[in-house]
Amino acid sequence: MQACNDHYYTTRDPLGLAGDFTTAPEMSQMFGEMVGAALADVWVRAGRPEVRYVELGPGRGTLASDALRVLRAAGLLPPIHFVETSQTLRGVQAAAVPGAAWHERIEDLPGDKPLLIVGNEFLDALPIRQHVEGVERRVIAAGGGLAFDRDGEIVESSPARDQAVRALGGRLVALGGVALIIDYGFARSGPGDTFQSMKDHRLTAVLDHPGEQDLTSHVDFQRVAEVALEAGACVAGPVDQGPWLERLGIMARARVLANGAPDRAAEIERDRARLCRPDQMGSLFKVLAIRHPDWPSPAGL
After folding, report:
1. Cβ-based neighbour number of residue 73 at 10 Å
2. What is the DSSP pairing of strand 202-204 with strand 177-186?
3. Which residues on neighbouring strands pair with residue 220, listed in sequence order?
4. What's the CA gap between 36 and 40, in Å, rounded?
5. What is the pLDDT of residues 114-155, one digit of tens each?
């Protein structure tokens, strides 16, 4: 999974209609604006300290651009830092968010100021392990292609995800600040095969086209919270994305946008519904906050 995704993300821009999938920030500016509003609010309640804005796997920079616009309106112009390994995407991000600095790992982020961190669809792409009756499930060459060496009830784990969350929690405990983790997944740990692949906006067989399709798994938010707590951080959530966006005011924002562009009113409402409705992204996607013990909990959680 790591090898395939390393090749996949370094050789293309996978987002949008011409790519393989579309994320929430690419659907509507409202998503990034609500994230920016949540961060601006928590920053004000923390006493308006000097901070850095950090995004993990920022895609095309669309979320950052929308969120930073709201932060600027609140009086915050922070230095911008992206954790991104893809040189292809770094080029796209540089055009969208001038002045950003890039880092290979969370551990490489500066250690001098509190952090406002966003991780949208970041953890799902980190590699997982699968076990069947306590034995690790492996990929083998068979019949001229690839296959799994065993089947049965699957239990997933992700040491790479644990490491990333541990690094996040440690940074926040040492420096102050808050992280918003937004991803698809489940609130409680449990068995099940969530390994999936996407190509041309359709689910595909995970072992087909290695390195040429997006590989992800659902995030175990209970485990994410446990690792953050072990690092000494505090957590809030997870909550479903739809209610969270609604509590932050996405419906009012949609009305303002529709009033300003009546010809786009139906499109704006369609995008809002896609982000919020339980039968679309509203329930599958979850939001979890990780924060320094002295920082306030973000709104909506």
Report:
1. 12
2. unpaired
3. 186
4. 6
5. 999 999 999 999 999 999 999 999 999 998 899 999 999 999
* Helix/strand/coil (H/E/C) assignment for every residue in 204-259: ECCCCCCCCCEEECCEEHHHHHHHHHHCCCEEEEEEEHHHHHHHHCHHHHHHHHHH
**Can you say whether residue 249 is alpha, beta or left, with left for phi > 0 and alpha for psi between -120 and 50 degrees?**
left
Are 46 and 110 a contacting pair, CB within 8 Å?
Answer: no
| C-alpha span between 162 and 159 (Å, rounded) | 5
Separation CA 151–CA 162 (nearest Å): 25
| Strand intervals (E) in the chain | 52-56, 80-83, 101-103, 115-120, 129-132, 135-136, 139-142, 145-148, 154-157, 177-186, 196-199, 202-204, 214-216, 219-220, 234-240, 285-291
Residue 51, token pair as written in the block: 């901070």
In words, the CATH class of domain 13-127+157-189+217-291 is alpha beta
The CA distance from 273 to 65, in Å, is 22
Cβ-contact 206, 214 below 8 angstroms: no
Residue 188 CB burial class (10 angstroms; 0-12, 13-18, ≥19): exposed
Rg of the chain over Cα atoms, rounded to whole angstroms, equals 19
Nearest CA to 67 among 6, 8, 108, 25? 25
Q: For 66-85, write each residue's pLDDT tens digit.
A: 999 999 999 999 999 999 99
Q: How far is the C-alpha of 195 from the C-alpha of 217, rounded, in Å?
A: 5
Q: Which residue reads 């300290």 in tokens? A: 49
